[in-house]
# Entry
Amino acid sequence: MRIGIGYDSHRLIEGRNLVIGGVEIPFQKGLLAHSDGDVLCHAIIDAVIGALGIGDIGSHFPDTDPQWKNASSIAMLKYIVEISSANGYGVSWIDSTILAESPKLAPHIESMRNALAQSGIPSGIINIKAKTGEGMGFVGRQEGIAAYAVCLLRKIR
Ligand code: MG
# Structure
């Protein structure tokens, strides 16, 4: 088995849609990024890449690459899950925590698990937790949103 950890954060700005875990969440701000800024997806991607030991999200999706500009992060995750499979590893478990002061994310967690499953990782092995920053730091000041994820891979062949 292999384990990997991922972390991501993005700045909240006006004029962008808020996409977390592949779900568009009604909010007055969105996350600034080359792609859709999906912090949860990006943390999971880095966790899978970390477990595979093949670099990081920046080496697979450079922000100079027009192919991934405004890309769906679910498509990016699907691409990495396919690389994992090609390397002989399947995902056994994903656990994650999103840090956001607002909006409230609990009502969207089931939708996120289902959206993330479009990457090929079954929703039944994806756990998502949501916390606030208790008013502290960049999360607490609503300057941005962050996410952590861990991934357990198992050898499938
Ligand atoms: Mg990111």
Notes: The mean pLDDT is 97.
